[in-house]
Design brief:
The chain is an alpha+beta fold and 407 residues long. 36% of the residues lie in helices and 23% in strands.
Length: 407
């Protein structure tokens, strides 16, 4: 357990096994932190020692944020070193859940996050079996996981988190315990991973899965449940520390059906009329272009903040511009006024950067959505998947099937 949990020991073990990981260092002074950042470049992930579920972890995009955050993380000293690692953007996050006996993997499941890495796995939308990874990536993940299990001589449950971009695979961490995705993959596979793990730990007989057990045509999606409406003034935006207070696992014959089931189960509604898009940086504007086009073709009225409206209109997608909260508060199409009048059925708000105006305006839109009970999505990848799902499938076409009918 110590070799898996102690970052120094674990990283040394990965280096010895020749397994790739994001560049990181345990640092004890501000100058050390700055010289490491000069080597790997921004953004970086900063995490103090002895924290759980990502508490007090932060992604820093520039020196001002880094300095501010390190001051918040109290003294960076020899007693309390911080771990600073390279933060990889636009990278898929993949989970490997497995049970091993004496270092040999007995059964496993590979699932993927809809959101790119940077959203805590407790908040991310999880898809199993993984739909959008290369066959070669899956093979590499199995190979690396087997080597780690053997090296640590695991008997029982474990979870490894991976980053994958193109054909590169890097290990984030290995937890020698069951993870939150364990019950989810067990339900989808109809293989009780925890029963197998318990039997192994008690040296009791257990059944080996046959190869066909992993060859399934149903798809499961785990969506997270948030309670921002009950937390006054909380900003409903996701990051590296966990915000969700529950989750729902749903099945479908295909990804769209499973995703719609899960989103509806966590309180989203399929929009009927207007949709507000405030898509942040140019990258997420481009990411949401196809989805916006699909909305327009389905006859939805699109509204957007100035920059997004100009972008969508220039690409032939009719969009009505709305004013930011701090522009012309009395105007008919000030966004806060329109939220209060329930002109939107769905709000997509992707935070753009960390300037004061952007944060204040974006926060007011997000908080307005929560306070008026309007479905809100703050992640471009999830927004795209949800929009494509309800544009390609009618709510009435979602089948109502029991778990037994699927498995």
């Amino acid at each position: 357990i110590d070799r898996a949990e102690n970052r120094n020991k674990f990283s040394a073990m990965l280096d010895q096994l020749g397994i790739d990981q994001p560049a990181w260092q345990e640092l004890t002074s501000l100058d050390d932190v700055k010289s490491f950042v000069q080597k790997v470049g921004y953004p970086v992930l900063v995490r103090p020692s002895y924290v759980l579920s990502g508490a007090a972890m932060n992604v820093c995009y520039d020196e001002e944020e880094l300095t501010r955050f390190l001051q918040m993380a109290s003294e960076v000293s020899k007693e309390y070193p911080v771990v600073v690692s390279q933060f990889m953007q636009e990278t898929k996050e993949i989970e490997f859940d497995a049970v091993a006996q004496n270092g040999e993997v007995v059964e496993y499941a590979i699932s993927e996050h809809v959101e790119y890495a940077g959203v805590h796995s407790g908040d991310a939308t999880l898809v199993f079996p993984a739909q959008q990874i290369y066959f070669s990536t899956a093979r590499l993940i199995k190979k690396i996981s087997r080597r780690i299990a053997k090296e640590l001589n695991i008997s029982g449950p474990f979870n490894i988190q991976f980053l994958a971009r193109k054909n590169e695979v890097k290990v984030i961490e290995c937890n020698l315990r069951a993870s939150r995705s364990f019950p989810f993959v067990s339900k989808v596979l109809k293989r009780n991973f925890i029963e197998t793990a318990t039997r192994i730990m008690l040296d009791a007989p257990y059944t080996q899965p046959d190869k066909s057990a992993f060859d399934i045509d149903r798809i499961g999606v785990k969506a997270s449940q948030f309670s921002f409406a009950r937390l006054q003034n909380a900003d409903p935006v996701l990051g590296v520390d966990m915000s969700s207070t529950g989750e729902v696992g749903c099945l479908g014959d295909d990804f769209n059906e499973a995703l719609l089931n899960a989103m509806i189960a966590t309180g989203y509604k399929i929009p009927k009329k207007g949709i507000l898009v405030s898509s942040g940086a140019t990258k997420s504007k481009v990411d949401l272009l196809d989805a916006s086009h699909a909305l327009s073709q389905k006859g939805y009225s699109l509204y957007a903040t100035a920059g997004t409206a100009a972008f969508l209109n220039s690409h032939g997608i009719p969009t009505t511009p709305v004013f930011w909260p701090d522009e012309r508060p009395d105007a008919e199409n000030n966004v806060i006024k329109m939220i209060a009048e329930h002109k939107f059925d769905l709000i997509v708000n992707i935070p753009k950067n960390h300037t004061k105006r952007e944060l204040t305006n974006g926060y007011r839109i997000r908080r307005g959505a929560i306070d008026h009970n309007i479905p809100l999505i703050t992640n471009a990848r999830l927004a795209k998947a949800f929009i494509e799902a309800f544009c390609s499938m009618d709510e009435k076409d979602i089948q109502i099937k029991s778990w037994q009918e699927y498995v």
